[in-house]
Amino acid sequence: MEAHRMKDDDEAVRSALTSLKTATGIPVTMYGALLPDNRLQISQWIGLRTPALQNLVIEPGSGVGGRVVSTRRAVGVSDYTRANTISHEYDKAIQDESLHSIVAVPVIVRREIRGVLYVGVHSPVRLGDKVIEEVTMTARNLEQDFAVNSAMRRNDGGKANTKSGRVMNGAEWEQVRSTHSKLRMLANRVDDDTLRKELEVLCDQMVSPVRVKQSTKLSARELDVLSCVALGHTNVEAAEEMGIGAETVKSYLRSVMRKLGAHTRYEAVNAARRIGALP
């Protein structure tokens, strides 16, 4: 890997680990980078008490991280050494560090896994859904940072080429995503059919640069629900925003998750972004 890429991406990882620790209060945050042979290596960390996990190389399919890579899904265990959903090649390292609960989420750029984002605690407590959602959203932001870094490196040997247009940074992309979601909600409140369709066309144009051929068709209402979820709304808040019942929101969300093969609402948002349905 070229030095410039390593510097940019390492800074993005450090920022992600720091923000994740601050947002959740979880003492341990780690990043495992995917090696060319499909193994993981814990390359950056915050809060580790011992060197047991530092630079640890993890075989494909092994432990929490290896399972994340093989399934491409988030994995969480509340008692690592007793968990029956993972293999236990790294129990000694985990015990030496005295970690108990661990959550790990894949970082995927252009459909390829780049690494795994971890959080862990040294006490036997279960990490709840809020923590899992925060790790997932941090992983999504890190994916965007990696993608932006890659795009900038392609322009003029790592420098943005102003003639070909400036590449947006992560914060600007978040603004685009927020605007897209709010625009969909605005269209939902418009009674004039023609104006509403024009607003929906604008929404489609915001995602058209990254749109790919979709094998899964999402309805306008399903996209509205996903847009609310992307803004962090609860089902009740989404229902109020859309002027429908909370149970109806749940029904749309279940349909979306089934279509996209997602197990959580934030997995559904991420899957929709990958097929170009959301920015």
Automatic annotation (TrEMBL):
Keywords: DNA-binding, Transcription, Transcription regulation. GO terms for molecular function: DNA binding. It comes from the Bacteria. It comes from Corynebacterium yudongzhengii. Coiled coil: none annotated. PROSITE patterns: HTH_LUXR_2. Residues 211-276 form the HTH luxR-type domain. GO terms for biological process: regulation of DNA-templated transcription. Pfam families: GAF, GerE. This is Helix-turn-helix transcriptional regulator.
